[in-house]
Amino acid sequence: MRFRDTLKTSLTGLKTNKMQSALTILGIVISIAAIIMIMSIGAGAQDLILQEISGFGSDIIVIRPGKEPKGPSDIGDTLFSDSLTKKDIEALKKKSNVPELEHIVPGVLVPGSVSYEGETYRPTIFGYDAEFIGSALNIYPEEGQYFTEQDIEMNAKVVVIGSKVKEELFGSAEALGEYIKIKGKNFKVVAILPQKGQVSFFNVDEVVLLPYTTAQSQLLGIDYFQEVLVIATSPEAVEKTVRDIELTLREMHNITDPEDDDFYVLTMEGTVQQIKNILQSLTILLSSVVAIALVVGGIGVMNIMLVSVTERTHEIGLRKAVGATNQDILLQFLLESVSLTVIGGAVGIIIGGSLSMIVTIVLQKFFALNWIFTIPLISIILGLSVAAAVGVVFGLYPARKASQKSPIEALRFE
């Protein structure tokens, strides 16, 4: 019997039992839809994060204290490590040590809330050089001006606030020139940022910036930094600058073995690759978990096909009586199984893609994220391939069982 005829017979069998076929592929549909959603959302998250990081400049180098974290539990060590100090900054500023360094800015994170006349809000409070952050991210005040280098040197009690902070504390009232409290101390509002939402690593609307020297001396009581940003003279000079930074800090900290480094250096390129690896690993992990559901769906296909073989024993006998071979019967039921799972895979891809689009719209509309809807081609190919493979693997036993039936016994079956 020709393959085309066998395929036609298989599809006719599926159409005859539409409800049974639909229930059979349900598990496959759900599993493939879940895999498509995971891969689509993972790709969207990767694109979003990489967009934000790329906006921070390929010539920027980040130095952090402590050992490089190997997992989430190690991040706290960075926040409490005191290995980067003012002496290190002065050493790095020397052209003889790091000739390709163009600009350097230390920073600290201040936990806590801000208040104004009974109104309280919990923003993200950074001690930094506001002018540097503004130029690096291309963000300039909507009202007022950034605090200056002189303000940093004088430990001035001044702050720059985001639009959300202004709205929460002042409402429609004037905020410029007013004083807000941080940890019980008054700080003068010298600038208000425009509404920007998420930019790079933080939400501009919910940020409070103050001189890092003020944050250290007035709020935290520390003499070390939790982060240092360095700008190289060009993206091409980043690699050499990283080497010079490492050599300088090892000399300052009397470190001879790089394994003993009490700091670590990140570049935007390295950060991008690190994030790609993390997201890809997470996507693979989640997809593997969902793949277990595919196995369950495959077992369902096999069970239904075994039932179908029993129900259609008489049909098998008739086909063999008119000349169908064992191979024809095997191929017919195997094609039915593969057709079921491939159809289930196709429906799952459509549903998964639709749900991913809905998630994208929600993230764009309600969370103001620049989320891009994307379905990797590999996920579609993988979905259909895995669905077909499940059909072959779990359909082979029922198909083989059908092909081995004796035509005489099959015709006698009631």
Domains counted in the coordinates: how many? 2
**Biggest sheet, open or closed, and with what strands and sense?**
12 strands, mixed
Oligomer: single chain
**Helical residue percent band:** 55-70%
N-end to C-end Cα span? 27 Å
Task: Summarize the structure in short.
The protein has helices at 3-16, 18-54, 75-80, 86-93, 130-137, 149-153, 163-170, 212-220, 238-252, 268-311, 313-321, 326-366, 377-403, 407-412, and strands at 60-65, 101-110, 114-116, 119-121, 124-128, 143-144, 158-161, 179-182, 185-192, 198-199, 202-203, 207-211, 227-232, 263-267. The chain has 414 residues and is of the alpha+beta class. The protein has two domains: 3-53 and 274-412, no CATH class; 82-261, no CATH class.
